[in-house]
């Protein structure tokens, strides 16, 4: 590859060691799209609120983790190192309720089996969705001491108070701009607040930092009473421990803006005196079903496991990317099927390109420079879509355009492109797909390749002998197996349907 063509790749690895990135992202804190400027050159630190592992993950949760995976992959593509923390809220009322339901009087001894089971499922789902592992997955129960010492600080500085039962509450009136982040009118919130069964609370918006022990519940020691930490505190304590304060981006589902993130910010202000816990607050829109929020009472929860029992993880990833992350996503089977169709197009281009590469000649081709220019154009356009507030639908359109260029133009002129050019194209095309969490099933077992190649050759011979009936029956047999053919004057290209065949990789 000449130097001239190399320079056409504008973004890949170009921001190693930089603080200012070309990425613009919507910041919930300012309610505007901002340029991403890192606190430390060449390194981004982020925290995404993780699951409370008491039940199977639903398609709304998976949308959030899939989005942040693409976000992190884009940063890495730009040359930025990323430290990502996702926590597990492995002690919570919901976990204890589930343990009581399942284990009855045994729940005191066995409650940990609940978070263990769903954390395991979280990792299985993450892997099927091609989500890269986070740098750290801290658990609340491993950090109780850190939380107790933070609460002690908050009590001694007057931001928190101890209720008669030994619970500790954060006093929201002590931070001057409580409600500013989520743009809530605090007085109307107080008026509308439900009266919760927490008699020691001074203000309905105050929230528990420490919950006193109740019979049958697990507990940890503290200066106030045996008990366990409250939810909002954990993220602040664990983010500070693993990332330092402030850090670059903090994310989660849109439903976490209030009260969870508002409360995290209030705690961080009180603990560290910093105005904001993270610079950029990024929230992913909710997933609805027939326009309604998924909820247990409506019995309309779609779990990721259910979807993955009938569809590939890559189809689900592509489906998520087809909607902008800030928009609500109304989950539908039709949408998922549309994503599967696009995935077939993406894999057809990949497979054809692989076959083209295998047979391409070593010497320079007449169209090399033109083809590479097109390829870099697609690459830059794809990245520019993502740099514009993570326009994944735009990125999907670009990679589909790239795929169509391969399947409708390139494969018809195999003698005009060199092996080197084909290899570059294949590598860039796959790399772009990977940013969206797709094109991971690219390696086919040698035996499958040899077998299909042999059948295709037999069919070609039959066609040249004008035995079309037999040739057609071979095509029909292959189609039935999920193997689709495209005939050109030079050769027959083939692709295997990854949405229905679970191939070993
Ligand atoms: Zn959180």
Walk me through the structure.
The protein has helices at residues 3-6, 59-78, 93-103, 107-110, 113-128, 144-156, 186-192, 231-243, 257-272, 304-310, 313-321, 333-359, 368-387, 392-408, 419-435, 446-464, 468-480, and strands spanning 20-27, 32-37, 43-48, 81-86, 160-162, 168-170, 207-212, 227-229, 247-253, 278-284, 287-289, 292-293, 329-331, 483-487, 492-496. It has 505 residues and is an alpha/beta fold. Helix 11 (313-321) packs across helix 12 (333-359), helix 12 (333-359) packs antiparallel against helix 15 (419-435) and helix 16 packs antiparallel against helix 17. The protein has a four-stranded parallel sheet with strand order 4-3-9-10, with helices on both faces. Strand 9, helix 9 and strand 10 form a beta-alpha-beta unit. Helix content is 46%, strand content 14%. The chain folds into two domains: 3-310, HUPs (Rossmann fold); 333-496, Anticodon-binding domain of a subclass of class I aminoacyl-tRNA synthetases (Four Helix Bundle (Hemerythrin (Met), subunit A)), CATH 1.20.120.640. The chain is elongated. The protein contains 17 helices and 15 strands. The longest helix is centred in the last third of the chain and has 27 residues, at 333-359. Bound molecules: zinc ion (ZN).
Structural key phrases:
505 residues, alpha/beta, Rossmann fold, Four Helix Bundle (Hemerythrin (Met), subunit A), 2 domains, 4-stranded antiparallel sheet, 17 helices, 15 strands, elongated
